[in-house]
Amino acid sequence: MSKTINIVVGDDHELFRDGLRAMLEKDGTIKVIGEASNGAELITCAEALKPHVVLVDIMMPEVDGVKAISILTKQEIPYKCLVLSTFSNSQMIVNALEAGALGYVVKNAAKGEIAEAIKKVHEGYPYYCRSTEMALTKLIAKSNFNPYDRINKPIFSEKEIEIIRYICEGKKSEEIGKLVHLGTRTVEGYRQKILEKMNVNTIAGVVIYAIKNYLYRID
C-alpha cells in the first residue's frame, strides 16, 4: 500500500473544500491532489490524476454525485469512492452505495473520522459513518449494496453470533453480559474481536454486515 493516499475531492462549496484539505493534510498520510466543483469536473479530474480515493458530494451541479460515482466505479480499473453527505439525504446515500460507492461520512463528522473513512475505503472495505441512525442502517441493509460478496468472510463462534445479534438489537455491553452470563469487560472484548473480524469501525457496520451475511434478520 502506498504510504500517501492521494485523493480527489468533488464538492461545489469552495470553503468546505479548503477546510477539508487543511484538515486532511494534518493527518500526514492523505494528500488532496485535485478538486472539482461539479460532477463533470470530478470525473475529468479523477480520470486525469488517478487518485486512490475519490470523495464525492451527492448534491453537485451538472452531473450529480450518484451519476458521477456510477461512471467512476465502472471504469476498467474502478475508482474507490467515498460519499460526503448529510443524513437528510438518506435515500441518496443508499443510491450512491448501490451506484458503487464503498462508504459514506457526513460533512460535519467528528475530527478525524473523514480521514478514518478514507483509509478504510482505500483498503477496499466499506465505511459507515459513526453517527448513522438505525433507520438509515436498515435502508442500507435492505438495499442492493453488498460489498461482502468479494471479501473473505471470517468464521464466528456461537457465542460471537449470539453477541452480534444482541448488538444488532441495540443492547449495551452490560445488558448483553447479563443475557449471556459474562462480565461486561469480557463482552467488550468480544465486541472488539467482532469489529476486527468484520473489518468495521461502527455499530452500523456490524448491523449491516450481520444482515447482509445472514447472521441477523430484520422485519
TrEMBL record:
GO terms for biological process: phosphorelay signal transduction system; regulation of DNA-templated transcription. It comes from the Bacteria. Residues 6-122 form the Response regulatory domain. InterPro entries: CheY-like_superfamily, NreC/VraR/RcsB-like_REC, Sig_transdc_resp-reg_C-effctor, Sig_transdc_resp-reg_receiver, Tscrpt_reg_LuxR_C, WalR-like. SUPFAM superfamilies: C-terminal effector domain of the bipartite response regulators, CheY-like. Keywords: DNA-binding, Phosphoprotein, Transcription, Transcription regulation. SMART domains: HTH_LUXR (SM00421), REC (SM00448). Residues 149-214 form the HTH luxR-type domain. The modification 4-aspartylphosphate is found at residue 57. One of its GO terms (molecular function) is DNA binding. PANTHER family: NITRATE_NITRITE RESPONSE REGULATOR PROTEIN NARP (PTHR43214:SF41), TWO-COMPONENT RESPONSE REGULATOR (PTHR43214). This is Response regulator transcription factor.
